Amino acid sequence: MGMNTQGRPTRMAENIQTGGYADTVSGSRGLDQAEPLIFERGNLEHCGVDLPEPRGTASRLGGLERQGQIGLPGLAEPETMRHYVRLSRKNYAIDLGLYPLGSCTMKHNPRLNEKIARLPGFADVHPLQPASTVQGAYELMGELAHWLMTLTNMPAVALSPKAGAHGEFCGMMAIRAKLDADGQTHRRRVLVPESAHGTNPATAVQCGFVCDEIPADKTGRVDMEAFKAKLGDDVAGIMLTNPNTCGLFERDIREIADLIHEAGGYFYCDGANFNAIVGRVRPGDLGVDAMHINLHKTFSTPHGGGGPGSGPTVLSDALAAFAPVPYVVKDGETWKMVEHAAEAEGEPFGRMAAFHGQMGMFTRALTYMMSHGSDGLKRVAEDAVLNANYILARLKHVMTPAFEGSCMHEALFDDRFLKDTGVSTLDFAKAMIDEGYHPMTMYFPLVVHGAMLIEPTETESKSGLDRFVDVLEALAMAAKSGESERFLAAPVHAPTKRLDETRAARQPVLRWTPDSGAAAAAE
């Protein structure tokens, strides 16, 4: 079935019915080309190059010759190229415009990082090569580990976690290993603030813990009285994001760390928002015992599209002995990889991955660190916070900030400014698409009703921020002026119109079949 039967118009006939590009014969509009599925374009009975059957040559397939058509569309090379180029023009990307997703740090990736990652010896390194042939890669990993520990003031780091949630798993497994080694197997309750990332409670449960939620106070931070009331001899630790998901710094962070330690637990800090404090604050100084660091956020490696990610996890003195294998160490004038627990000095809780981690991410991250220097990394955090507060200051007269005062790296608004307008947070976001912007993070964090979370990052210029703010200001004024129909119809200029997103997510059509006339998901 074609994409049009999923509520996604791709051909002229369907566009006319759905309010798409019905004002042109081709279905295209200027340089925005209409493009059907490749199965709808191609001819299933032919391939791009038709060759005559070979003569006088015996088959070497041993009776495994194809007996019929395999259902792949046949397109010539120019047609195939145009298909994918046209599809690429429908993608929004950080190289196209400001990407305001909150809590995701979608910032510019310097091309220098990409150049270095593609150097011979890094781009084609293989994890099964002899150690003598990968000394440069080992040294790079050792150097990266050094700077991650320096920036966080932590004595150990595991490089092998593949992403943020994998890094969380690493930190919580280290905490569990430490508790078990100390005979504290009854400690299985983990405190999780209600503004936490969804992966936090999921990770805790996966590691065999139970979660106990801590409410937020009226300022959007941990309710200290509620936190103190939940401390007990069964508490394993706390999983807290700082700055938190509301874009606010937890002012009581030192007291939280001291209290959790006094109770016999450990402090896991979600490092997804490290970009807001890198070079300015060292988590180890705050009493943190474990923290993952998203190299694909803070240190600008490519982010999105399913990866690749990288989530190294730093550990405190209390947990360092339980760091997983493998890890690199300097052995005289050479480097080596400690692959097995029996070779390690401590008590590794196990192994996180088959091999050593994401070399491409390591290379990019270290390049980013070295090109910025310590002063540059500090400036990253300062400018990220400055840009978010600029957006907050410019929009607070027409939109409603979720909390009073300044913010850290992201500005959080709620939907009170849309009250009685007939326009919802979703409608507002869809109207942004018509203006050429990817929407901000919507309805998250869950503690804020109709949340709109904006993280501009440090890589946006003032002129770029002004253009973005002008659009949001105009949309807010339009909503308040009663132009609700404009929002309810949006997006009208995008190739894909508004869908039944809930149904599309719950009943996705993942395999193409010829049109049968039957109803499909999100029709």
TrEMBL record:
It is an enzyme of class 1 (oxidoreductase). Residues 382-478 form the Glycine dehydrogenase C-terminal domain. One of its GO terms (biological process) is glycine decarboxylation via glycine cleavage system. Pfam families: Aminotran_5 (PF00266), GcvP2_C (PF21478). Its EC number is 1.4.4.2. It catalyses: N(6)-[(R)-lipoyl]-L-lysyl-[glycine-cleavage complex H protein] + glycine + H(+) = N(6)-[(R)-S(8)-aminomethyldihydrolipoyl]-L-lysyl-[glycine-cleavage complex H protein] + CO2. Keywords: Oxidoreductase, Pyridoxal phosphate. InterPro entries: Aminotrans_V_dom, GDC-P_C, GDC_P, PyrdxlP-dep_Trfase, PyrdxlP-dep_Trfase_major, PyrdxlP-dep_Trfase_small. Residues 498-523 are annotated as: Disordered. The keyword Protein biosynthesis does not apply. GO terms for cellular component: cytosol; glycine cleavage complex. This is glycine dehydrogenase (aminomethyl-transferring).
